[in-house]
Amino acid sequence: xxxxxxxxxxxxxxxxxxxxxxxxxxxxxxxxxxxxxxxxxxxxxxxxxxxxxxxxxxxxxxxxxxxxxxxxxxxxxxxxxxxxxxxxxxxxxxxxxxxxxxxxxxxxxxxxxxxxxxxxxxxxxxxxxxxxxxxxxxxxxxxxxxxxxxxxxxxxxxxxxxxxxxxxxxxxxxxxxxxxxxxxxxxxxxxxxxxxxxxxxxxxxxxxxxxxxxxxxxxxxxxxxxxxxxxxxxxxxxxxxxxxxxxxxxxxxxxxxxxxxxxxxxxxxxxxxxxxxxxxxxxxxxxxxxxxxxxxxxxxxxxxxxxxxxxxxxxxxxxxxxxxxxxxxxxxxxxxxxxxxxxxxxxxxxxxxxxxxxxxxxxxxxxxxxxxxxxxxxxxxxxxxxxxxxxxx
Length: 393
Prior knowledge:
By secondary structure, the protein is an all-alpha fold. It has a single domain, classed as MFS general substrate transporter like domains (Growth Hormone, Chain: A, Up-down Bundle). Helices cover 80% and strands 0% of the residues. The chain has helices spanning 6-26, 29-36, 41-68, 73-86, 89-92, 96-124, 130-158, 163-169, 171-184, 199-203, 213-227, 233-241, 250-272, 276-296, 300-328, 334-363, 365-392.
């Protein structure tokens, strides 16, 4: 197997630092919204859904620009820098609209960096090692997502549940992420940007119409899978609903991300060895089981089992989907392909999160998770039917 390029390792370190910062905030944000700012469940769903959808829309443009100008690192740096600048807004917020603005701006930063970063990984990694490269970056990203909530839990104890003081700490690792990116990430030489495209070609922004059926099939698959999985903010609220102590609630995200990180890299290796359909099916089965357990949970032990299965689903599917996009897209439109993939997935996450918030408010937490299981079951049935059809063809 080919060695993982140093640029991938550096991008993994950047992801670790930024995710530590973001998840320190994210693990406490639902409690901050509902407990400190008095928001309702629908507001939580709207904030989370709009934030993620915003990131996904921006990825279309940033990915396309990185293709058009044959440069990725400057766009990635801009995205991480914007996200770092938003971190102080969370502890400063005194109302839900300011939190929404901060999440909006933070996710714009994520959107700016996401598609060019993923395309850069494909640029520097040989095809036979892409599953491992995406799996490793995802594992390092998720390690930061473990350290963030752990830090939040420890700081909540140290600061006597003063959420605002804890949120201020998130500024430091975000700044470190930008420094590592600027100093350690190297962009390979690429073909120069195309010169003076004709008007009809320029009008077809970023070549979306040139991605091809194979790429759009992967984009559609990502959208369906995301529709079955709403925001992880509802995992935090489920823990609160089951009586988990306030300072311990960030450990819910820790547990999920420990499993996520542990599964991501082995899943990437398995993807490189040709087990992609099995990984997708296993990921969907894990999410169905997670939703059913979380919907009926009456104890912390059941909560833990559901959280672990949610993490397994993420580890089995997220790096794999990036690998599928990288393999399907034309080399010169790789950033555009990641942008389109994330746009569709983000719109699906917005719809899923708003629906989850409405169901929670109207029918209770069980309805939210059972609906997720039903949608995921339909996705799994479709995947298995498509797989059988491909084998018969």
